[in-house]
Design brief:
By secondary structure, this protein is an alpha+beta fold. It has 3 helices and 11 strands. β4 and β5 form a beta hairpin. The protein starts with a strand and ends in a 36-residue tail after the last strand. Involved in urease metallocenter assembly. Binds nickel. Probably functions as a nickel donor during metallocenter assembly. InterPro entries: UreE (IPR012406), UreE_C_dom (IPR007864), UreE_N (IPR004029), UreE_N_sf (IPR036118).
Amino acid sequence: MLTLHTKLPKSATGIGAIAAQLVLPYELREKCRLRATLSTGEDVAVYTVRGTVLRDGDLLTGEDARVVQVVAADEPTYKVTCADAQALLRCAFHLGNRHTQAQVGDGFLRIRADAVLKEMLAGLGARVEEEMAAFEPESGAYGGGHGHHDHHPLAPVPLRQKIHRPGDSA
């Protein structure tokens, strides 16, 4: 079974052709260990550092140097739109108040399908449409999207759990 543990920069040059795609819903892209099936039908084990979220377009590799591209799978979501920006902001506030992951788009929010949240949003005057779409929620203020790259763990990460990046010391 192929094991993927090294995340390559999207801008990496000379990495070779993409050998396969790993199509996963967001729920599985949040996991640090998983077994999945590539677009080629091959089983694969994925090991990442706890807290890593695989995003659409990320590139992974393993010992055999094949490059696999992560693809965000379409999944049941709600697209939330409002008559104006203030109403949409109000919906975002109430979703955040419930610690709901949300994707922020140009004039819309996208959340995982949830009947209770759909009813709340409709009550706030939002238009809520069911759609199958890739879900890419915001990482949050503390979710690693803030640009710090000087991570210093308190304890070493076991090699089988470590996600390697070019330039990391062995």
